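Whether sequence alone determines local backbone shape is best considered at the level of individual chains. When preparing material for the folding task, we compiled for one chain both its residues and its backbone structure tokens. The sequence in question and its structure tokens are set out directly beneath this paragraph.
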Amino acid sequence: MKDTSEKIQKLYHNMLMQKDGKTRLMMGFSMFDSSLKVMKASFPDNLSEEKIKVKVFTKLYKNDLDPKTFTEIVKYLRK
């Protein structure tokens, strides 16, 4: 989906590039943490920490990994 004009994209990019690398990295960490909180809020309350790890991993990476690699990592997370 592309719903932002090129002018606004360039403006936003320029604003970000004016920030130092550490600040941009911290912004990325903050956005990930916020996304993680929203994701976890959608899970049932009674999940074990192991099941939460597997659900988070699945939501983030299921479509990015081949099935064999995905399965191996899930097995590791369940240890």
